[in-house]
Amino acid sequence: MVVTGGRSHVDLTLSVPAGLAGCLIGRGGATLRGLKEATGVSKIQLGQQPANGWRSVNLGGSQTSVAEAYTEVARLLRAESRLAPDAPWSVRVMLETGAAGALIGNGGKEIRALRDETGASIEVDHLQASASERMVTCAGGPAETQHAVHAILALIAKRQHARHHHFLAQWAFETDYLDHFETPADAFADVMPLLRCRALDVAASTRRGSCSSNGADDDDTAAAAALQELWVYDPYYCQGAVRRALVALGCASGRVLNENADFYAAVEARRVPAHDLLLTNPPYSGDHKVTRRR
């Protein structure tokens, strides 16, 4: 497993025997879809090509939902393997080198405490030169290995939170480190024809302008004027690049709505600002993808 996380989001990549992976997919992907709906994870992805007889299964979402998804995946894999309910087994975990070091702790203090707490055998392989990841093997009964994986998730999430706490404190709402990479300026330039068209439609509908013109120069002048009057709303605040990019492309600064505020709280309180156009690149952590699709 490769585990990463922010304030409220973790990614967990399991390495499972390739011959068992089919039980996680189901007919037409039905089992995967059922797992997502039942556990609330934002993603479950299987690697396409087996590597040395193993296949990756990536789970992403909140720490709680990923823990629940792991429990369900483990149940399905054990059933497919026809293991007795209490039969021991092992779980392979891949951690970034730094995370593996945190798992071990000073002089092995953390890993010894984790073994005592979970009752599982937890072993970390030797650090290889230039290696970016280390293998962790958790072995024991189903309850012990589940406890170990859940404890590893909690430890990694805590570590990630400590690393990014000061950075995340910039925002007035719960957020995730991986959500704060601004959309490139080229992407805004690509959608400007749509914004200009919408601006002209709004101008025409409010008698501020017209979509008809006598030539290309008139069209450009009308579109430029209409853009200055267009209210554009991006509910997901990163670090303000949305406003800067759109202003550089002809929008009015005061009419680009992108504030350091909790969008979901605004929806709940019915305080979403009036706007002519919603333009956004939503976050990809947690269940944002699911929310967008719905």
TrEMBL record:
Residues 8-78, 87-157 form the K Homology domain. The keyword RNA-binding applies. CDD domains: KH-I. One of its GO terms (molecular function) is RNA binding. It holds the Pfam family KH_1. Keywords: RNA-binding. It comes from the Eukaryota. PANTHER family: SITE-SPECIFIC DNA-METHYLTRANSFERASE (ADENINE-SPECIFIC). This is K Homology domain-containing protein. It comes from Chrysochromulina tobinii.
